[in-house]
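WARN retry 2 of 3 for item q-0093 after timeout on previous attempt; input resubmitted unchanged.
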Amino acid sequence: MPETLGPDRRSARANADALFGGLATRFDNVQRAPKFYQARSKLGRYALSPSGVFADTSVWTTVGADSTRTLTLLGTHTPTGYLFAPYASVAAHTATGDARHVIRLRRRGESEYDWDTNVDHAIGPVNAREIAAALTAFVSAPQQAAGANVHAGNETLFPETSRVLGELFSLDSLRAVPIGDGSAAVLVRFRMDPDRIAKTRPNFSKYLDKYVSPARYRLRLQDGTGATWLDAVGSDNVFSVRYRVRDGQLLALSGAARPLPDTLQINVDASAKFMIFRVGVSRLIGDFAFVRSNEERGWAMHFRHEPDWNFPLAVNHLISTSLRHPFEGEGITVRISVRDRPGSQTLLSREASVSVQESAIVRWLGGLGNSAMSDFAGRAEAEENRYVFEVLSALRSDFVAALSVGE
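OK item q-0093 returned
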């Protein structure tokens, strides 16, 4: 798999060094300039009730005449850590690890607002096709050997990564069952145990116990016939992923092998526990498209159908018309991709947009989200950032070491 990150081993090693190094810096002793430190807290508090932040000029870097507010941030690595600072504008990235965040809020009516977020993170010279090839090799790896051998092989090839991930996660099973047509049905199941990091990362451990451990979710990718191509489930700290693969190509879990469609449906059920009650959605269904141009690879999602909402009885009496609003028109859009820029930094990009209509029930949901964010901000977030930094740094070390063998 490491060799897929470049046309030769030397290029692949340089690409891996820049890719994982650039991603790791984002989590190295994260700091925020005072203006953004205050703005971030307000944005979290008023995400679903934007009227509370729309007129607050201390939050925005640009105030437009067309009812648009913009916050533009530059993220860059400094001698003391990774710094997010606001600017009126941020030029194109020139250094690996630099990031540009653009958050826009537009008022459409008295209680209607549009949020748009764009994030570009520079990841070095590796191109989109090489990233896609590495992901394909990763998904195909279980088919190449029996599950036990794959596990042992990963620990041999990625010793530092296995060690760091092992602080919090354990691999319960990794099975690839051959099917007569040359494909294999793959099951990956792993477990998260926050108690493992209770002494070394106590605040992050408590946060995981409070919010992640009780969460339940299921994500399926399905086609128009109802066939499932990917099934991911999480509950009670156990996570599993099922898929079928042949020669690097994803296949439907059942039935005859056929080409992967350009567009699938994504179907999500999810719930979280807040205090003594549970809040969630079921049948959150959207269009899931693969981005496969010459210079960009990724995924684009559009959610245009209101899901079924699961609320406590005390909340069900609130008027819920505003809950349909985000799914009208273009709906909620999410795009994650890697984009080439010949002669410059390749970008890992995230784009999202959602429309909000303020109401009592929407403000109640926003309060729950802000409560979770407030619990995370501070020591729990700092410990989480450090853990992610160590995981990505371990990947960088393991990839570089594997691609240095024999030279």
